[in-house]
Amino acid sequence: MGRHSACDVCVDERRVSAEHASLHWTGGRWELRDLGSRNGTLLGGQRLSPGERVPLAEGASFSLGGTSPTFVLIDDSPPGAAARHHSSGARRTASGGMLLLPDEELPLVSVFENGEGQWVAETGDDVQPVEDRQVITIAGEPWTLELPPRDTETWQSDIRSPSLETIHLRLAVSQNEEQVAATVVMGRREEELPARTHHYLLVTLARAWLEDRDAPAAKRGWLGREELCRMLATDVNKLNVDIHRARRQLAVLGVQNAAGLVERRPSTGELRIGVRSVEVVRM
After folding, report:
1. Residues 82, 99: contact at Cβ < 8 Å?
2. CB 193 within 8 A of CB 210
3. Which of 31, 58, 63 is nearest to 47 (CA)?
4. What whole-number distance in Å separates Cα of residue 79 and Cα of residue 84?
5. What residue spans carry the region label Disordered (predicted)?
6. Does 223 have pLDDT greater than 70?
7. Spatial separation of the C-alpha atoms in residues 211 and 202, rounded to whole Å
8. Lower CB density within 10 Å: C or N end of the chain?
């Protein structure tokens, strides 16, 4: 935070230093630090010492150099993943733990935490680990990732949230195969997903899983990418976009590891459904 245009939060005031203060998520709380500014950082009217770090509670207010505006921490929950476009400055934020880039209308890359708690970026069959402040290029355009660290306490509380292992997916298909109603059952709670064309992708993968019921778990339900594209009358690019969108719908419901809704074998290009409790029924 400061007067310099390169700051994440730019405050164009004479009393504000070029790099005045920082606001940082430590993994368990928000922390404010004065960066040796000339006119100081005031928290609740009290000036911080140069370089001093102080935790912030929800509702805390502070200012840079005693100028306006006064900043208030209105939400002390952990930050989500985000990315900033280099040339335009546009900032995209994650929804339901999944960051879709360059936007949600035409997602080419998904950024999410895998089952080991590591941030990864998936582009088609390619899955690469990524880090905070890493620059990735999408369609020739650079984006800087903003990835929060994993908070152990938050992770423990998330264990009680629904996951791919605990939900049931019900896919109701019309007689002419043109309509699909997708419902996620989470214990006693049921959520019908807004109707989308990519639901037929889930139907196709679910049928392959159910038809292979006698196969070993490791070999069950896999479909080749080209075969799947023929079955859906689509191409690889559209298939990848549909996978991104299907995962995001699940992530918005708060389902852990929603990226596993569709599993990939990068070495072979094969795909399968990632929900083990699934059914396909007629409307």
Report:
1. yes
2. no
3. 63
4. 15
5. 74-94
6. yes
7. 14
8. C
Distance CA 187, CA 165 (A): 12
Task: Give the separation between CA 25 and CA 86, rounded to whole angstroms.
Answer: 23
Examine residue 102 and say whether the peptide bond preceding it is cis (omega within 30 degrees of 0): yes
pLDDT, tens digit, 9 for 90 and up, residues 131-147? 999 999 999 999 999 98
Q: Is the pTM of this model over 0.90?
A: no
- Judge whether 231 and 202 are in contact, CB under 8 Å: no
* Runs of H (alpha helix) within the chain: 152-158, 199-211, 225-232, 236-252
Question: 87-135: per-residue pLDDT in tens?
Answer: 888 889 887 788 999 988 889 999 998 877 789 999 988 889 999 999 9
Which token pair is 96?
């339901």
Length of the chain equals 283
